[in-house]
Specification:
138 residues, alpha+beta, Structural Genomics Hypothetical 15.5 Kd Protein In mrcA-pckA Intergenic Region, Chain A, 2 domains, two-stranded antiparallel sheet, 5 helices, 7 strands, 20% strand
Length: 138
């Protein structure tokens, strides 16, 4: 393992992306950032760099511990990178999971049967709420 590597090869080697071509495509679309700049697939990273990967709805952050251009086993990944994603990003992910059926992307079609039931359940729970239980005069 060398002290520097191409970003697309490193992303593939540490198993963030399944194939190198998918990693390169993510770079081209601006989903990969190093030192607060979007990078091209041939960008060279070094040990200590923080790589930010945008996977909607959050941005993951990984610290490069070692550079590798060959894919490694899943058990060896912690030796190559450290996940330094801020906790608030994971909270954002959890919130989007909970409320995912409300924020449907335009053009994704009709809700599935399960999503429809979840929406109906949510709306029924909201209509059961009564203001009489609270005393606002305090």
């Amino acid at each position: 393992m060398s002290d520097q590597a191409r970003i697309d090869k490193w992303l593939w080697a540490v198993r963030i992306y399944k194939t190198r071509s998918i990693a390169a495509e993510a770079c081209k679309k601006g989903h990969i950032m190093v030192r607060d700049k979007a990078v091209k697939p041939a960008f060279t990273i070094r040990e200590g760099d923080i790589v930010q990967v945008k996977k909607s709805p959050i941005t993951y952050s990984f610290k490069v511990l070692k550079c590798a251009e060959n894919r490694v086993g899943a058990k060896l990944v912690p030796e190559l990178m450290e996940n330094v994603t801020p906790q608030e990003q994971y909270e954002l992910l959890e919130m989007s999971r909970i409320s995912g059926f409300i924020d449907r992307a335009r053009g994704t079609g009709r809700p599935t049967k399960k999503e429809r039931r979840d929406m109906d359940s949510f709306m029924d729970d909201a209509s059961d709420f009564e203001f009489d239980e609270f005393d606002f005069d305090d």
